[in-house]
Amino acid sequence: METSTITFDQLPHVVSGLSEKLDRVLELLEKVGAANPFKQHKPSRRIVHAKEACTIIGKSLSTLYRAIKAPNDPIPSYKRGKLLYFYEDELYTWIENGRKHAVAPSFEEQVAAVTAGMKRRPRGGYNF
């Protein structure tokens, strides 16, 4: 291959030649079945077992089994026979959905939470 210096006047012709070659290479890759590097692909769903799910969420096996049966926000799981299966992407979305809100509750919400937790009303009334 011969290397020569390109002048400013030759630059548009060289760039157009490179563009044509790149288009031909991409066409050949598509014919072969190779993935297009410029196209976003949906990631494939990967199935994981219980022990690997424990490492993903950072909890023990017993906590995982308890969290599957939790009444509020259970861990998404699938059972076939005696084995539990999880999808890795569902575990990550479950973790992301459990994010705490950064906004502090208002005074009225705090009062409602405190009064809801009281067994009896105090004799002197509420002192808020």
Structure description:
With 128 residues, the chain is mainly alpha-helical. The chain has helices at 11-32, 50-57, 61-68, 88-97, 107-116, and strands at 47-48, 78-80, 83-87. A three-stranded antiparallel β-sheet has the order 1-3-2. The radius of gyration is 30 Å and the shape is elongated. The mean pLDDT is 82.
How do you describe this structure in short?
With about 130 residues, the chain is mainly alpha-helical.
Distance between the termini: 85 Å
- Return Rg in Å: 30 Å
N-to-C order of helices and strands? HEHHEEHH
Q: Tell how many strands the DSSP assignment holds.
A: 3
Largest sheet: 3 strands, antiparallel
How are the strands of the largest sheet arranged? Answer: 1-3-2
Low-confidence stretches: none
Q: Which structural class is indicated by helix and strand composition?
A: mainly alpha
* Shape category: elongated
Number of helices: 5
User: Strand share of the residues?
Assistant: 5-15%
**Percent of residues in helices:** 40-55%
- Give the averaged pLDDT, no decimals: 82
Protein name: Helix-turn-helix domain-containing protein
List the helices and strands and how they pair.
Layout: H1 11-32, E1 47-48, H2 50-57, H3 61-68, E2 78-80, E3 83-87, H4 88-97, H5 107-116
Antiparallel strand pairs: 1-3, 2-3
Protein name: Helix-turn-helix domain-containing protein
